[in-house]
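<instruction>
Derive structure tokens from the sequence
<data>
Labelled lines for chain and fold:
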Amino acid sequence: MFVGLSDRKRFHFASHFSLTSLTHSPFSSLQFRVSFSAFLFLDMDLFETNGNGNGNGNGNGVEDSLPPPPPVVPPDVVPVKADQEDFPPPEPVKKKPSRFPMARRGTGSKGQKLQLLTNHFKVNVNNSDGHFFQYSVALSYEDGRPVEGKGVGRKVLDKVQETYDSELNGKDFAYDGEKTLFTIGSLARNKLEFQVVLEDVTSNRNNGNCSPEAGSPNENDKKRLKRPYRAKTFKVELSFAAKIPMQAISNALRGHESENFQEAIRVLDIILRQHAAKQGCLLVRQSYFHNDPKNFADVGGGVLGCRGFHSSFRTTQSGLSLNIDVSTTMIITPGPVVDFLIANQNVRDPFSLDWAKAKRTLKNLRIKTSPSNQEFKITGLSELPCKEQMFTLKVKGGADDATEEVTVYDYFVNHRNIQLRYSADLPCINVGKPKRPTFFPLELCSLVSLQRYTKALSTLQRASLVEKSRQKPQERMRVLTDALKISNYGSEPMLRNCGIQINPSFTQVDGRVLQAPRLKFGNGEDFNPRNGRWNFNNKKIVDPVKIERWAVVNFSARCNVQQLVRDLIKCGQMKGIMVEDPFDVFEENGQFRRAPPLVRVEKMFEHMMSKLPGAPKFLLCLLPERKNSDLYGPWKKKNLADFGIVTQCIAPMKVNDQYLTNVLLKINAKLGGMNSLLGVEHSPSIPIVSKAPTLILGMDVSHGSPGQSDIPSIAAVVSSRHWPLISKYRACVRTQSPKVEMIDNLFKKVSDKEDEGIIRELLIDFYASSGKRKPDNIIIFRDGVSESQFNQVLNQELDQIIQACKFLDENWDPKFLVIVAQKNHHTKFFQPGSPDNVPPGTVIDNKVCHPRNYDFYLCAHAGMIGTTRPTHYHVLLDEIGFSTDDLQELVHSLSYVYQRSTTAISVVAPICYAHLAATQMGQFMKFEDKSETSSSHGGLTAAGAVPVPQLPKLEEKVCNSMFFC
């Protein structure tokens, strides 16, 4: 570009080019300043080398092999100094202010007052002058290798405390089990080093270089035989990292949260974890589980539900409290490995086991071997059966290097005199390293207790778990009171030193019961739901559709299809839905019943389309399996994405009027009808919402099962339509990187005039369905985020939504209300002296709520099973200006507009719909080829590291429907 110019002119031209081209570009002033200043100082920055051509003085740059570059300005030419008039100083970049969760505006007053108890126990903090000192912990073996296995750290630190008590000034630790330790007050020095020997470290987590027990196979080294197996030396380094004032807790209780507050609370929670660890509990985040068979419930498949307790400190309006709740985790059934495998694979005997599957299931589980009772971690299975698997054995009494080859079976039966009943023809368990295996016959191995089972539960297991872990309110209160006594936190020295005392009584709170909203049905009939429920007996649907041009498809379900159709038509008439006779009933050809799901669906469509006069409007699909049918995903994808046909799947087992009514409610909503309306929606008289066009969004992200790091996460956003209604919705669903919680496709600019994001699609639909009106207000309900992610919702997701609005119309400034709904918490409410759950509509916004932020708990539904779990709503932003009462009533009302059911639901309908839409479209990908997203990319498993396959777009005829209902 600069060829033929003199050096002085070239410099002027470069400066001018840099300035003019960038000031007329769409890029920011920041980019301009960086580019221009870089150009101006090119000769100073880039070519100030140390004689090796790479400018960084390390002699290993890419430029090593290249000749030095020519100078930009020859030494005899002085660059012309730029005038101030030509180059005014750049304006400082205005950093966009971050949004933070808003403060509480006051408490509500509507509703009937009700005294309640909650599972928060008041905590008195009598020491706020001290400091927690944080130290980094580095553990290594004698030879310098870092200790990587879990579980060893606590034993090592206990030994350090026992051995070096005086050097530690007699201080107690709060140790997180990994790399962080806290003390109250400082240790003697900022860096301390210790060395300890542990005599009793079993090899359950990390075997170091030691071999297993002396008599086990593959031990052909005399020295290894004589080495004392259990003694091991550890080096421990403690380095000062931070100082946390206890005052931070007191400040937080007054609503003044400092940056130290979360850390100070974390220290208290670590003390609780450590207290549980000393009692031999399994720790899962803030929950702990005792090894007590009384707490185990068999849910099938070799899996137990293990009941334990959650405990964590919470800052609340009434001070610091300890939240204790019943918690359940899944564990492997302890005992003989063979019994577990038979139950897990649901086979009759060990000779029917799938050993490839068994190998995957057993990897990394811990076992004890008999008769030595030593503990090991399973690394794999032998390739050959026990009677054929050879290893090299040192010959006793022979020459130093005398060895012989024997089978594992022969060694245990003849050399160790251990009788083996059934292991001869089964693989051995390997607990050694890949190049140095150590084998044990299967029947000598038993699984250790309290090992977590992290795979997804089957439908039957989940149902069994719910059945066996439910507790009525009074029983739960009794169990929690006992748990607090058994925990004996008063004996924990660290808590005593913090001046912490825990009140053993449940905290009293003030609740209010909101009145259920009035519902509108067909024929102008009104109804007030009682106890959060209603039914359609003698009632008609408010806005019925006509079910026409439809057919029935039967995938080998065993039922009287003709009778089912007659009953459906009759039931429809009673509810006000006109159901025409179906065109035909298409039965699956018997020869395809064992074919893959995709083939079965294709063959059914070929059969159907050959006989139908045109594409049907609706298909009723009968499936043979009640839950998790493999046909469901391919069938839905074929209908919704390829043909735009609304479809309802059922697995008819017990068909009665109630069942058929529920089916008709779903069909009516999917085809565009309405089952019931709120009275205030019909009037319309909802505060604020009915006065100005208001869009309601429900947002959720669903992730693959634990351990499935190559399954994309699915983000779903549903939006209200036909304002002033708040009962009609449509959905937009996209895939995104696995395990990523923030939705990243809300705004997706692909060109100056094109945005392919989720929000644009929903805004355009609202405009088209609401009389060409843009929403003045946008209400966002966000599910599934924790408190640590609130700022991301406000500063990432909300920013994208605002960008999408501005992209449509630069001058459009809608007002926003952002609410996060959480179900995954441990706060429960109880009616004192009553066996019943709290009544539906119970709202709590005092005492156990946040000391500063705007939150409240709502039990909108009637808890019929176990103890009601309230939904915890956090209002992060309210630009619209709702009063506390109006907002709580709106949230309560949105629990009554769920078109699939005749009950109030536990969380607002838009969030439930988003969850349904994400789940249903996730089934589309169930049988897709996943080879692209896993092993071909080096097995990447980190969040966001794998390429994401896109979901198919829904056909135009159904994309605006409530297909997910």
